[in-house]
Amino acid sequence: MTDDAACTCKVSRTRDEFDLEMDDDSLVAAWQDGTSVRELTRSFNEALIEARLDRLDGSSTTWNRLPVYDALKTDDLSEADVIEIQRELERDGVDPDELRSTLISHQTMYRHLTSCLDASASPDPTPDERREKARDTVYALQRRTTLVTESTIETLQNTGTTDLGDPDVLVDIQVLCRECGYSADFDTALTEGCNCP
């Protein structure tokens, strides 16, 4: 692995500027444990956004409840949600375009891992590792869906579009085999399979 001091790419510069707790050993270990470059990039950017917004003085916005990363880098949110989050940023003195330009791309993360750190991905994972990876991916999406739904409801409530009191969002994932009719939650289906012969 290349010495951290010799690396001056955007990953290292940004991490140093915002004092992010994502050292190179952790990045390489996560990658070699099966975490994708896309997931590493998202985690890095979310930590960067959190660090940037933590520096705001006098902000009344509960930023950890808002999917700021999704508003800046993905197409997962509605246009109305994206506009609302960008307005919240601007109200607190943050230029959304400038913040977006600070974020790193998947290609930048990959070059940092392979060129700066001379690392390589792990060999093909075992079946257990594949199942664990699938479990982590699905549950992360489940949590993300919950967060986006909560944010959407909150936006609608704040604009007087709907009145739901104090709602809880529950996202349940069920797997149904169309051949034998077996139905189970995702984790059970993943580990036990179905009743097909």
TrEMBL record:
InterPro entries: RdfA (IPR048925)
Descriptive protein name: Rod-determining factor RdfA
Organism: Halorubellus litoreus
